[in-house]
Design goal:
The structure holds 2 protein chains of 2 kinds. Chain A is an all-alpha fold. In chain A, 74% of the residues lie in helices and 0% in strands. The N and C termini of chain A lie far apart (87 Å). Chain B has a single domain, classed as Ferritin, core subunit, four-helix bundle (Ferritin). Classes of the chains: A mainly alpha, B mainly alpha. The interface between A and B is medium-sized, with 31 and 31 residues.
């Protein structure tokens, strides 16, 4: 007997025996079982829906707020972008710095979006406070402060958010170098 | 060994490689580039030694540097030397960022200490990489997310 034969052979008697079973249900019994099964399934589904609705009703609607440190980091990036846009430093340098800050802002917004469903939690774009175009020296100072601020915020966070801010802090320190 | 300790050893290994690499690339440079290479070499020597000491003080045995780093060769000329310097700094930044990531998963005074050290080293490498990109006149001179 080949392997194929062995695989097929045991099945045949079982199939025959099942057909020969005296308790083979009649068509009407099969229909009753089908209806009973369907009814149970529908009841279960309905129960699940009710439980879901009750669960929703009893859960207080408190939108999850992202960490304040993350929101502060978003605001800091926006403020830096606004200062850069108002500055008159060489275009190539400004474009480079801006591109980095925009990348930071997007990454931070994505981090905020992961923990919050309310976009209004992020404060609006900060305007340049002095109204005067910031000089390279002023921008250098702002980048230095931003770097230190990001490093401090990073220590207040854990996991990926902390690492993100640590990397941003390093980048902003390199901006100080670029503005020197 | 914990994941933080392993990452710490990797950061040490990156600093050992950087110290070796700067000794290799320095002779290819002249003028201000050579001065920058010397300053970077001193910084990496110092960080390597401080890291090895700190690892020892924590009760672990610091990894020993490799006898040679074939992946750093060849360094033929100033352009190649500057490119290697950028690469060394990027690798150090990646190693320190990894240590930061591992330590950021743990809440303990020693983990916080590792994070502070890693932040300082990551930042220093990002700044040095920018200095080398400027020396090489390569754009962009900065990276939005150093260490990634």
């Amino acid at each position: 007997m080949t392997d194929e034969d062995r695989a097929v052979a045991p099945a045949a008697p079982r199939r025959t025996a099942r057909r020969a079973t005296p308790s083979e249900p009649s068509p009407s019994a099969t229909r009753r079982r089908f209806l009973a099964g369907t009814g149970l399934t529908l009841l279960s589904a309905a129960g699940g829906v009710v439980a879901g609705l009750l669960g929703t009703r009893h859960t207080p609607h408190h939108p999850v707020q992202p960490p304040a440190l993350l929101l502060a980091a978003v605001a800091a990036e926006r403020a830096l972008i606004a200062e850069l846009d108002a500055s008159r430093i060489p275009l190539a340098t400004r474009s480079q710095l801006r591109a980095d800050h925009v990348a930071h802002l997007r990454a931070l917004q994505a981090a905020v979006a992961q923990v919050s469903s309310s976009p209004s939690a992020v404060p609006p774009t900060a305007a340049v406070q002095s109204g005067v175009a910031p000089s390279a020296a002023k921008l250098r100072q702002l980048e230095q402060l931003a770097s230190a601020g990001a490093a401090t915020r990073a220590l207040g966070l854990t996991g990926r958010d902390a690492v993100l801010l640590a990397s941003i802090a390093a980048c902003e320190a390199s901006h100080v170098e670029l503005l020197s | 060994m914990s994941s933080v300790s392993q990452a710490w050893q990797l950061a040490l290994a990156a600093e050992q490689q950087a110290a070796f690499g700067y000794a290799l690339l320095g002779p290819q440079l002249s003028g201000t580039d050579k001065d920058l290479a010397r300053a970077c070499e001193r910084a990496h020597d110092s960080l390597r030694d401080d890291t090895a000491t700190a690892i020892t003080e924590s009760g672990l045995t610091p990894g020993v540097p490799a006898a040679d780093y074939p992946a750093l060769y060849p360094v033929a000329g100033a352009r190649s030397a500057r490119a290697l310097a950028v690469r060394l700094e990027q690798q150090c930044a990646a190693a320190w960022r990894f240590l930061y990531a591992q330590a950021a998963e743990v809440t303990s005074p020693s983990a916080t200490a590792r994070r502070r050290e890693a932040q300082a080293a990551l930042t220093a490498s990002a700044v040095r990489a920018t200095q080398w990109r400027r020396a090489a006149d390569s754009a962009p001179a900065t990276e939005a997310f150093p260490g990634i």
